[in-house]
Amino acid sequence: MKLIVGLGNPGREYENTRHNVGFMVLDAYAKKKGVSFSKEKFQGLYTDFYQNGEKIILLKPQTYMNLSGESVFQFVQFFSISLSDILIINDDLDLAIGTFKLKASGSSGGHNGLKNIEQHLNTNQYKRFKIGISNDKMMDTKDYVLGRFSTTEKEQLDKVISLSLNILDDFLTYRFDVLMNQYNKKQTR
Fold first, then answer.
1. At 16, phi and psi to the nearest 5?
2. How would residue 12 be classed by pLDDT, with cut points 50, 70 and 90?
3. Could you give the angle at the alpha carbon of 13 between the alpha carbons of 126 and 32, nearest 5°?
4. Based on C-alpha coordinates, what's the Rg of the chain?
5. Which of 100, 99, 95 is nearest to 87 (CA)?
6. What is the pLDDT of residue 186?
7. Is 39 helix (H, G, I), strand (E, B) or coil?
8. Residue pLDDT, tens place only, 79-121
9. CB 172 within 8 A of CB 51
10. Is 111 a catalytic residue?
């Protein structure tokens, strides 16, 4: 069983904001797979499907970003999901718009959603799919991440989201080191 988690904030006011790229990727992937987020459990909206005989859960925590770990932890516990079978999709201020990075583990990099997941799982040894949202040092970080994308930024992000559908499919099939070697070199900018 695999768990793919997209991070974001629930509610219409947060739709299409920089902090919600995890939700955007999962929405696009669910659409590709022909499933919808119609189930609720453990403070999360989720859906599932089977691929190659394995159950795949797509989760959008509804706890707000800073408490994402509460929902993730409950899913991991309830479904007995191995840490090696978790992928977290999050926004990253240190990566330029139109870029991404797959990481096997590591620090939260100051990302509050990842910090909370680490606290609840009691480890930082889980896989991440970090999507660049750039950074505007002239703005307060909170205002920036809750802001919307410009038209040009959205075009760049759409290219990453399109490629992410292949990345997620490959995550279900290949070892993560193979994915990192293949995709971390491929940047869409």
1. 60, 25
2. very high
3. 55
4. 15
5. 100
6. 62
7. strand
8. 999 999 999 999 999 999 999 999 999 998 889 999 999 999 9
9. yes
10. no
Dihedral of the CA atoms 171, 123, 95, 85 (nearest 10)? Answer: 10
The token duo for 168 is 């997620």
Q: What is the 3-state secondary structure (H, E, C) of 84-120?
A: HHEEEEEEECCCCCCCEEEECCCCCCCCHHHHHHHHH
Residue 137's contacts (CB-CB under 8 Å, 6 or more residues apart) are none
Residue 68's SS3 state is helix
d(CA 40, CA 51): 21
Tokens of 51: 């691929």
Q: Which of 2, 9, 18, 19 is catalytic?
A: 19
Task: Quote the CA–CA distance of 106 and 130 in Å, as a whole number.
Answer: 12
In angstroms, the CA 153 to CA 84 distance is 32
CB proximity list for 89: less than 8 A, separation 6 or greater: 4, 5, 6, 7, 21, 22, 25, 26, 128, 129, 131, 164
The token pair that represents 93 in the structure block: 């201020």
- Pull the structure tokens for residue 147: 């802001």
